[in-house]
Write a structure and sequence with these properties.
With 233 residues, the protein is mainly β. The chain is built from one helix and eleven strands.
Length: 233
């Protein structure tokens, strides 16, 4: 249901874009400095995934991409059609991975177990953009940039068991491409982040995690699609 809601948001976003491009054709009145806040949804996409135990590739591998949430504050420095946009935000990420571990003294494996991963992170982003359309009260821009992520709290849970919590700051980075729309003070943003090179996970680093999974290592790469709306002054 969350994915359907995200797709609906994106559809509305595209419709608004088309309508506004045909509707507004006024003189540009962009300020030298703007600031704003935005709220939205993120969706982590696991692009490649493998799980190992003692260098043995485990069977029954699968993963599930899930939606999370974000809140972000930003400033925009305008230089004619060019702009620079530093940001500071908070994200809640959700995803899950499944695998089977071997039964001791046997050639068989247990039924697949679903590892749910829910994390909270602070993001510092820097964007460089260009307004393709700059006719007040409408702006349509594209941008590229980078994101530095500090994950400070992650819950890991197996099936219906209580979560195992890992704290401490883990730094990561990614590249960003995206587009934005302004209709007067209303701001829309759609972006794609790739990739997260430090997305691998050793289960033995999780405090109090069950002994049967201590030697399991997960190798994965992740990307993030996000959609948000807010206000810019």
């Amino acid at each position: 249901m969350k994915k359907i809601a995200l797709y609906r948001f994106i559809l509305v976003y595209i419709i608004v874009l088309i309508a506004c491009i045909t509707e507004y054709n006024a003189f540009s009145q962009t300020s030298k400095l703007n600031w704003g806040v935005r709220l939205g949804l993120n969706a982590i996409s696991i692009r490649s995934y493998e799980a190992f135990q003692a260098d043995e590739l485990l069977p029954n591998l699968s993963y599930t991409n899930k939606n999370g949430y974000l809140i972000n504050a930003f400033a925009r420095f305008n230089m004619n059609r060019l702009f620079m946009q530093p940001e500071l935000g908070w994200n809640m990420y959700h995803r899950s991975c499944a695998f089977s571990i071997p039964i001791p003294n046997s050639n068989s494996y247990y039924s697949p177990v679903d590892l749910k991963i829910d994390s909270k992170a602070i993001n510092a982003n820097y964007l460089l953009g260009y307004n393709i359309v700059s006719d007040y009260p409408f702006l349509f821009g594209v941008f590229v940039g980078s994101s530095f992520t500090g994950t400070y709290h992650t819950n890991y849970s197996l099936e219906s068991n209580n979560p195992y919590t890992k704290t401490g700051l883990q730094l990561n980075f990614s590249g960003i491409i995206g587009l934005s729309i302004n209709i007067s003070r209303i701001y829309f943003d759609l972006r794609y982040e790739s990739s997260l090179p430090n997305a691998n996970l050793k289960l033995k680093t999780i405090p109090d995690f069950p002994d049967d999974y201590q030697n399991v290592k997960i190798k994965k790469t992740e990307a993030i699609l996000s959609f948000s709306c807010g206000v810019m002054f």
